[in-house]
From TrEMBL:
Keywords: Amino-acid biosynthesis, Histidine biosynthesis, Metal-binding, NAD, Oxidoreductase, Zinc. GO terms for cellular component: cytosol. It comes from Rhodococcus wratislaviensis NBRC 100605. This is Histidinol dehydrogenase. PANTHER family: HISTIDINOL DEHYDROGENASE, HISTIDINOL DEHYDROGENASE HDH.
């Protein structure tokens, strides 16, 4: 019989933002919209104590910062970016332009055209998410985006060296040291010194996420962000210690991060609880991971793996790790997840940092209707049509006229009527075809 071994006791995250956050973000965006650079500088001074002569780093300054980073760190960044670039390139290569002839001389097609300019927000502060530079900047460049503007908050009054190096190595065309709502608004709207972009990407705090939500429509965004989520499906053969370690690896993202285990074994579930209680006191990030596990940790015991997969689909978690005898079964048994991590050799932090897939993934149940960030997000699939055979145009015109009048669109109907008359000798009851006049040279 299925039952809950550990339930969440905290309130789940909501899609609606805190009203105070909404109001603060709206005020900052309105100020940046009206006052441009002046407002950006004001909020940067207020929130970050940061007001350099220029928020954009010069090429010489970027080069100096990169030189200051230890070569071993640069090598690790290059290794991670090589994995991400290779997978993104494989994805891009799989996306093909299309043209088909649907009727004689009627050609329909689509082209995949890169967005012209993208912004990549790389979070800073206590936990700078350097990997976000790989996931946003690099993926956009592989897609063919001409201009990628990357931005990150200052760290203790200085540009964060590793983040700047990561953005540079990923191929950022412009690098700004600017954080918060003021950065997102400046890049979305444009100022006297910052050109606007067409899409905002990258994670951030509640204020950054709300800014992206409010600006969506004027610009595109990657995803509506919520707390990091992880879910593990495990059978009776799974190692409880590994499960415990892997759940805590994601719990440290934030005190509101859900971490869920669905298992077919009660003994595995109870052992996981014991291991987590033993591991938490020695975890440096216990102040964050502890509340996440206490308030948002769950363990569900189910009778079969089929039931486990069905329940996992209900959660539609951002990260889903499969620790079962046959992990690839999840590929056909599940459909609602941000990313799957199959088998004990694959942990979620690999996806977070370096394995090659993108770590910008859907949360708050959005995996029911979308996947994560990938090269396709930076492409516009644009359709076109051409009718070369005028007989086909006449046929289309006849049907277009009839269908348009069903919907009371007389102007549409007449465009179709005209082709039917001009190219097929159909009557034109509402007018006469003018005689074509040819000029002589």
């Amino acid at each position: 019989m299925s039952f809950v071994l550990k339930a969440a006791v905290g309130e789940p995250a909501q899609r609606a933002s805190n009203p105070a956050v909404v109001d603060t973000v709206a005020a900052v965006i309105a100020d940046v919209r009206a006052n441009g650079d002046e407002a950006v500088r004001k909020y940067s001074e207020k929130f970050d104590g940061w007001s350099p002569e220029s928020f954009r780093l010069s090429e010489d300054r970027v080069a100096d910062i990169v030189k200051s980073v230890p070569e071993t760190v640069l090598d690790d960044l290059r290794f991670a970016q090589r994995q991400i670039r290779d997978f993104a390139q494989a994805q891009r290569d799989s996306i093909q332009d299309l043209e088909v002839e649907t009727l004689p001389g009627v050609f329909l097609g689509h082209r995949n055209v890169p967005i012209d300019a993208a912004a990549a927000y790389v979070p800073g502060g206590r936990y700078p998410l350097t990997a976000s530079a790989h996931m946003t900047v690099l993926t956009a460049k592989v897609a063919g985006v001409d201009r990628v503007a990357a931005t990150t908050p200052p760290n203790a009054g200085e540009p964060p060296q590793i983040s700047v190096a990561a953005m540079h190595l990923a191929g950022a065309d412009e690098i700004f040291v600017l954080g918060g709502v003021q950065a997102v608004a400046a890049l979305a709207l444009g100022t006297e010194t910052i050109d606007p972009v067409s899409i905002l990407t990258g994670p951030g705090n509640a204020y950054v996420a709300e800014a992206k939500r409010q600006l969506f429509g004027e610009v595109g965004i990657d995803l509506f962000a919520g707390p990091t989520e992880t879910l593990i499906v495990a059978d009776h053969l799974a190692d409880p210690f590994t499960i415990a370690v892997d759940l805590l690896s994601q719990a440290e993202h934030g005190p509101d991060s859900p971490c869920v285990l669905i298992t077919t074994s009660e003994s595995v579930g109870r052992a996981v609880i014991d291991h987590i209680e033993a591991l938490l006191p020695g975890l440096v990030t216990n102040a964050i991971a502890g509340p996440a596990w206490r308030d948002h940790g769950q363990i569900h015991v189910v009778d079969t793996l089929d039931e486990a997969y069905r329940l996992a689909d209900v959660f539609a978690s951002e990260h889903v790790q499969i620790l079962t005898e046959d992990p690839r079964q999840a590929l056909t048994s599940m459909r609602n997840y941000g990313a799957l991590f199959l088998g004990e050799g694959t942990c979620v932090p690999y996806g977070d940092k370096l394995i090659g897939t993108n770590h910008v993934l859907p949360t708050l149940g959005a995996a029911r209707y979308t996947g994560g960030l990938w090269v396709g997000k930076f492409l516009k699939t644009l359709t076109y049509q051409e009718v070369r055979d005028l007989g086909s145009s006449a046929k289309l015109g006849e049907v277009c006229g009839r269908l348009s009048r069903l919907e009371k669109f007389e102007g549409h109907a007449r465009s179709g009527d005209l082709r039917a008359a001009k190219f097929g000798n159909a009557p034109l009851p509402w007018g006469d075809l003018p005689t074509r006049v040819t000029s002589e040279r």
